[in-house]
Write a structure and sequence with these properties.
four-stranded parallel beta sheet, 10 helices, alpha/beta, single chain
Length: about 350
């Protein structure tokens, strides 16, 4: 099933769209034709309603298609086939904030197709999960959940007054900072730019990561997965951390060297890890991480389909309205084809 939108007359001809990074990205004009929603899923009707609310109508994926809302985050080859079947597409809405699975398509088509992602759209549920993993590891819930007898030794650490290092400064990181505020923590944000971030006591650039790790009680990873951030956390970083420190990762498993993480938990380089993402993923049965008493692992469900469907639908509505506007303005979550997110 698909949805289509009629484009106002007078919008033909090439135009430039300004990406989040400030680079001009030329894309094909949105001539009258469908915005297809694919593949079919339980939430298609919700996204059809979002397109309709922005002024669109229902239509098929074919040669006339000018926009595409892609709902499957795990089928980049399906999207590649859809783009081949609809060569006139000028805009693609992707379903997740992380677009690493589609990086090759963004690089290949980015000079003619505007890609938008869901970055920032799911900030609230994912940040909530990050806080849950933070509190869970501090309160040794990974150990308590496995216990079969009453413990007599007191354990656990309060979050109040601790030092938290947050890697990344996107929507999830910003919402996490908002949730941390009542705990009176000190926060250091690590990002590409040293520009200040609301809610953080200081901001440093990525090349200063190793400098801030020795003082961290909690490190929460919310960075984009790119070629430059792959295995950002390895043996060196774990060696620098306190033996009482906790690691939380709700971004991408590939940001952390899994073997180094297992070693760090085993030898006590860090106290615990709360993971909603792993590398490999799904984490295979029998993988050593499952047996680590310091690990809490959730199956990449910081944002379930029920949580994100209405949030993605709102992103679809906003970007459909921007697409129909024909001025190349108002798009939310624009992917920079050079940076890859």
């Amino acid at each position: 099933m698909s949805a289509a939108a009629e484009t106002p007359a007078g919008s033909r001809g090439h135009r430039a769209v300004v990406t989040d990074a400030g680079a001009a990205l030329p894309i094909a004009p949105p001539a009258a034709g469908p915005i297809a929603i694919a593949p079919s899923s339980d939430s298609v009707s919700l996204h059809e309603a979002a397109v309709a609310a922005a002024g669109g109508t229902v239509g098929p994926l074919d040669d006339d298609t000018r926009g595409l809302v892609w709902l499957d985050p795990r089928d980049p080859e399906g999207l590649a086939s859809a783009l081949d079947a609809a060569p006139g597409v000028g805009w693609v809405q992707l379903p997740f904030a992380g677009v690493d699975a589609f990086a090759h398509l963004i690089a290949e088509h980015g000079d003619q197709v505007l890609f938008t992602s869901a970055k920032g759209a799911y900030a609230e549920p994912v940040a909530e999960h990050a806080l849950a993993l933070t509190l869970g590891t501090l309160r040794v819930l990974q150990k308590r959940a496995r216990a079969r007898s009453w413990a007599t030794e007191p354990e656990g650490v309060s979050l109040y007054g601790r030092h938290v290092v947050v890697i990344g400064a996107g929507g999830i990181a910003q919402e996490y900072l908002r949730l941390l505020a009542p705990f009176d923590v000190s926060v250091t944000v690590v990002r590409r730019s040293s520009a200040p971030v609301d809610g953080a006591d200081r901001t440093v650039t990525t090349d200063q990561l190793d400098e801030v790790l020795p003082d961290a009680d909690v490190v929460m990873i919310a960075a984009a997965m790119t070629s430059g951030t792959s295995k950002l956390f390895g043996a060196r970083q774990f060696e620098l951390m306190r033996p009482t420190a906790r690691l939380v990762n709700i971004a991408r498993g590939g940001l952390v060297d899994t073997d180094a993480l297992v070693d760090a938990l085993r030898d006590g380089s860090i106290a615990a890890a709360g993971l909603d993402v792993t590398d490999p993923e799904p984490l295979p049965d029998g993988h050593p991480l499952w047996d680590e008493p310091g690990a809490i692992i959730t199956p990449h469900q910081a944002d379930t389909p029920e949580m994100v469907a209405p949030l993605l639908a709102e992103r679809v509505r906003l970007n459909t309205a921007a697409f129909l506007g024909g001025a190349g303005e108002g798009f939310v979550g624009v992917v920079d084809p050079v940076a890859g997110y």
